[in-house]
Amino acid sequence: MRQVYVLSAAMTKYGKSPLSARELALEASKNAIDEAGIKVNDIQAGFIANAFSLSEKQGHLGPILMSGLGIPDIPASTIESACSSGASAIREAWVNIGAGIYDCMLVTGVEKVSQLDTITATTYFSFGSDYIFEGACGASFPGLYGAIARAHMTKYGTTEEQLASVAVKNHENAFYNPNAHFHKKITVDDVMNSVVVASPLKLYDACPFSDGAASAVLCSEDFLRKMTNGPSSKAIKILASGRAGGTGALHQRPDLTTLNAAVLAGKEAFKQASLSTKDIDFLEVHDCFTIAELVALEDLGFYPRGEAAKAEQEGQTKPSGETPVNPSGGLKAKGHPVGATGVGQIVEVFEQLNEMAGGRQVKDARRALTHNVGATGGSCAVHIFEKNN
Ligand SMILES: CC(C)(COP(=O)(O)OP(=O)(O)OC[C@H]1O[C@@H](n2cnc3c(N)ncnc32)[C@H](O)[C@@H]1OP(=O)(O)O)[C@@H](O)C(=O)NCCC(=O)NCCS
């Protein structure tokens, strides 16, 4: 494999947007290309990460985006892997560049769901579960993660207040992220008093339905070297890309308190990079619900089983703590435009490693890990990045 770099990364604001998926994708892509300091014709191929564009009566987003950029001849196809579509698309570009097929690729993740009412959006999202056994029986994603939370509470004594502390921290971080869906600091009491969505999970334990897009330009070492001084100096190295699958449905698993896909993808990534948890300066993990952040930290080996909750409550996962987690605000408060999420995590890594993160900057960050989960763990991709200058 050749060394692969993230040359640039950019995103739209997440939240409820009047723009369509194609407009959001175009905005993020143009910004990433500008940030890279390349010409649009340098892009040789692309991947679009998206799950729900059919809700806008538009599939086949690849040619739509490339035509919008003025390069309709460039091959581009959609990667759909539910909520892990974004990191899966990054992974495929990494494989293509690493294998020497292309030198410069565009990866854009996008989602637009605010045109759907709550019930319709919840139903669309449930198509990412094992629909026959879960969605069709009435199990929404809040319901499925509610079951995971209940199992974790039963097995390890995790409390609702500890879950709430994850939301408080991520809302605090998002406050300093201009592109975040929410800019509202909250307290543990706010979370505890918010409406129950799927017991034990409440409104503030859940990520919102977000629109948004994120984009990254990936390139080879040869391409990077040919670039003039300037923008290329911000490029970050992809040290590892781990990917794994898990059962589509929860009832097929022996233990609900772990996502095996995340365990496997994390091990693969650490092995590829020849690193361990202590070498990582901060993480962006898939906190679609507060419980998911705790499970992620335990699955990736940052905390022993049952101990992440206490660490969260003690503030260890704040940007100034010993294990900063989701300085962007995470899915919980930065937002979760499904197809964009995995690429958006890399935007945060790019900004942090280039010391562009303002009030949420993690001091002296050199290495970061991203963890992007599809549905309740049917798929997972873990990437490790390193500062290059
Ligand atoms: C929790 C949930 C049902 C709330 O949706 P909703 O009832 O349609 O909420 P609305 O859009 O009507 O918003 C009502 C209020 O709550 C706020 N809100 C909505 N979702 C929120 C969330 N997740 N966290 C915090 N506040 C939220 C809105 O900003 C709005 O506030 P306002 O009245 O001050 O403007 C929805 O966000 C949800 O299902 N989230 C999970 C999505 C999901 O499953 N993703 C896949 C993960 S695997």
Structural notes for this entry:
With 389 residues, the chain is α/β, with parallel strands linked by helices. The protein has one domain (1-389): Peroxisomal Thiolase, Chain A, domain 1 (3-Layer(aba) Sandwich), CATH 3.40.47.10. The protein is built from 13 helices and eleven strands. A nine-stranded mixed β-sheet has the order 3-2-4-7-1-8-11-10-9, with helices on both faces. The protein has a two-stranded antiparallel ribbon with strand order 5-6. α1 crosses α2 (61-69), α3 packs across α13 (338-353) and α6 crosses α10. The relative contact order is 0.20. The mean pLDDT is 97. The site of coenzyme A has 15 residues, from α4 and α5.
Topology:
Elements: E1 4-11, H1 21-36, E2 45-49, H2 61-69, E3 76-79, H3 85-98, E4 104-111, H4 118-126, H5 141-156, H6 160-175, H7 188-193, E5 196-198, E6 201-202, E7 212-220, H8 221-226, E8 236-245, H9 260-273, E9 282-284, H10 290-299, H11 308-313, H12 330-334, H13 338-353, E10 367-374, E11 379-387
Parallel strand pairs: 2-3, 2-4, 9-10
Antiparallel strand pairs: 1-7, 1-8, 4-7, 5-6, 8-11, 10-11
Helix pairs in contact: 1-2, 3-13, 6-10
This protein binds coenzyme A (COA).
Coenzyme A binds at residues 83, 118, 122, 125, 141-142, 197, 203-204, 206-209, 288, 336.
